[in-house]
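On clarity, I found the account of how folds are encoded harder to follow than it need be. An entry of this sort, consisting of the sequence and the corresponding backbone structure tokens, reads as follows:
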Amino acid sequence: MSKTILVIEDDQDILDLVTWHLESEGYHTLKCTDGRKGLESAIHDKPDLIVLDLMLPGMDGLEVCKTMKRNQATSDIPVVMLTAKGEEVDRIVGFELGADDYMVKPFSPRELLLRIRAVLKRYEQPLEQNTAILRHRDLTVEPENYKAYIGDQQIRLTVTEFNLLLELMQNKGRVRSRDRLLDRVWGYQFEGYARTVDTHIRRLRQKIEPYADDIETVRGVGYRFKEV
């Protein structure tokens, strides 16, 4: 069964270009040119992934993403932001709101398809075949169930955040470079996207307090989960 992708984009030429390439790859597409209607479609149609512009009429893309991630019915739908807003602060805000990836216009349709495939793959299968439960004091990670706990309290992590924590904990004491993490967790490497890792590490640290300091920064290289 083909995956359904909702494209929320107010530029008709870009909307047609993106949906044409998606449909050529066998995806079923839904189209919206308005942010509020796009949000309604996300809630009603439950697509497998959303390609989201930021500058939209009705409701801007950041608000659409924020509202989706706060709604239990849509919080697990992956989002790829596609926008002309390419400043680093814009990317960081997008990731902070829960976007899984962020592409800047003008863009390569081939690269967009690669990113979409990588995001869908992350949601479809675990990072490792090893499903052994991991523990670090009272921090528990269950790979098979995609769940993490501190004590008895479940931590709400996105799939990307979960895979990032899993990769670090499965390699305790070993440094994982940003390029390695991009390859293992995101499924690709592109020049200039190392800061994507930094943003997600910051979000992950916030969510796993009081174990934030156990994710150590190795200056100029990457990150390491402290071996205790």
In short: The longest strand covers residues 4-8. The two ends are 45 Å apart (CA to CA). DSSP finds eight helices and twelve strands in the chain.
